[in-house]
Amino acid sequence: MLNYRETETNWKFVKELGSGAFGEVSLWENTETGISVAIKRCSVDLDKLALDERTKLTTRWQQESDWMKDINTENIVRACPELCANLVAEQNKRIKLPVIAMEYCDGGNLRSKLHEIENVNGFSENDVRQVLRALRNAVFHLHDRYKITHRDIKPDNIVIKYNSDGQPIYKLTDMGYARILDKETIIGGSMVGSRNYFAPEIVESAEYKNSVDYWSMGIVAFEIICGVYPFLQDGSMFDVLMSIKHKPPGCIAITKSSDEKLCHHTQLFCENRLSKVFCRSIEPWLQLALEADGRKRGYEALDEVQSTKPMFTFYTKLDDALNVKVLTVFWLNRCKFLSYAVYQNTTMQDFCISMERDTGILRNKFYFVLPAGHSLDHFTPQTQPFQLYEEKFFIENKSMLYLVDFETDGLCNPEDPFISEPIRQTFGLNQKINPRIMKQCLLNALFLQYHELRRVGECANGIHEFLMNLESEIMKQEHGVNCFQEKIIHLNGQAAHFQNMVVSGNLLLQEKQITNYDNEWEMIAQSLKNLNADYSKVHLRLKSILNRTRDFLNKSPLTTYQQDVELHVKQFQNVFEEIRNKTRLISPEEVRSYVSNFLKVRKDFYDNTNKYLRKTVAGKSKPTELIMEIYVEFQTILKIVFENQSLWKDYEIKISEKTKEFLLQFGEKFYMQGKNNQTAIDNVIENMETLDIDSGDLSTSWNGNNDDSVLELPTDNLIKDTKLLQQALNSLWGAQINHQQSSSSGHS
Q: Domain residue spans in the chain?
């Protein structure tokens, strides 16, 4: 008989993918199309089984094949015999039970993913959410539509397939133990599943319903969050079951202390990669899933006022947790991760109140920095918290917003790292340590270094982003300052025009009959001179700040400091791999040494970063942070700009009013002198019309109308207005000369 790996079709055997109690799965590839499929074949010799066992296995096998053909949902592995009909037909001739051709999931399974070094303390929050959402959809689909209970949910039976965009899709597989069973049906006498993942009632009474899948989901969820089994990780099966049976309500994990006492936990272990918001959201669901009583599992007990009957909230609780958007913030002053649930209706006031609570800093001391690549161009007073959430940053486990406060003394002053009890015990004991404590100590030490490395990376990136943001703001304000300087020059021009009008008017009238403006002009001129001096200083200070900021960005050694920390983490990571693979042993003294050295390298990073920040301002009696000084100085400049902006607006209005006042006075007096020469007046009005000034208003005003409101000069562009008025005066002056010349000629 031919070996099942040999074939006369256009398919070739690639490798074995895995095996279970009854079957083996292998990978096959089409030599013409390159398409891959997974073939599951029964590995049990049916001839060696008793008749009833043979019948039961045959029924289960055929049922699994039929279900996989019928079930069509993204999160359950689908049968695809149509892709390889010739291969299936050939294989079926060689064995008694038909093979099951399935879609090939090229990403392995959750067990292999959990074994990856970066996941020994659990998955990232994005991966956790994706797995739980996929598992929720798969189980709900089985329970609700097909009334099927899987009965063997575990990391080994959750496989990964990458889509065309490279994103993972998690799929439930292996329906070998599945059975028609709903939440009302109770069965007995069938103890199936995998140790650590089957519900306690399966062993205790062998009577259960579909809530056994909820328990398995809870165990898988805890394991992918924390990287470890929740109940007495190294305990015997009997000890585990007894501890679960007697655990108090709400307990989601049980551990042993150094003195062998049981510790019951209602919250997730601190050593995980989730945001605090998601931890607090998923814990109530875990309490529902890991309820020891199968009859109560998935149900939430309500108070008597609401209902006497518990409500089934297993899926809604999970959905609530999975749907919450978490805005991640990195507080640069304390190098601390903050997280907040944000919704469409979350206001900035609510957001800032929460941050005030977490930081102890008043909101008027907050300064927000958006990281590069954020969908928002800049932060404005109208920005809402929900707009700050960035999905791509969440996937990459990056902060969506940096917070700098200007009340805390300096940047990069982190709180002391959290040191777990197992690590503390290695520092406090010299005798031999319990292997269980030692194993936990190694896991905690690795988590400590990963977590602190992430903090270091966010700190270095946050400082860079802050300075880049500051540089951008300075450049924008530099342009604004230049515009203000131009405005001052224009104001000087306006004032000069006004002064020339007064001089020209008095010359034209050949006597000083108009109000004396000399004193007011001197005051305005001196104020403009002071204003110009202020802006000259501001311009130089902005240049200085910009140069220092760019100097820091171009010569920053933070990358080198960060690499030192990364190198130490990599070294310990290699040691951890060797210990896990049992190629070396490690003593408590070595663990102490690695942890101590890491904490020193971590401290050096922050110390060196602070020294470099102070370097530019060295020589002062009490050095301050470069970035803080730059920001405070920058705010001072903006304050000067704002105050002076108000001043030049006041001067602009004042010059405008004085110009109107002068024109009315001058027009009336000139009219009185030239009233007998209407031709000259008409000539002036004609010249004014060519300058787009309302001659009707001017004529009315100059013909003795004392209502000042009649004269309405344009004020949108006062520089243009002033020039027009000056040209009008020149026309009047020319008209007066022509009048005098014509009078002289007539007299002759």
A: 1-104, 107-323, 326-408, 435-629
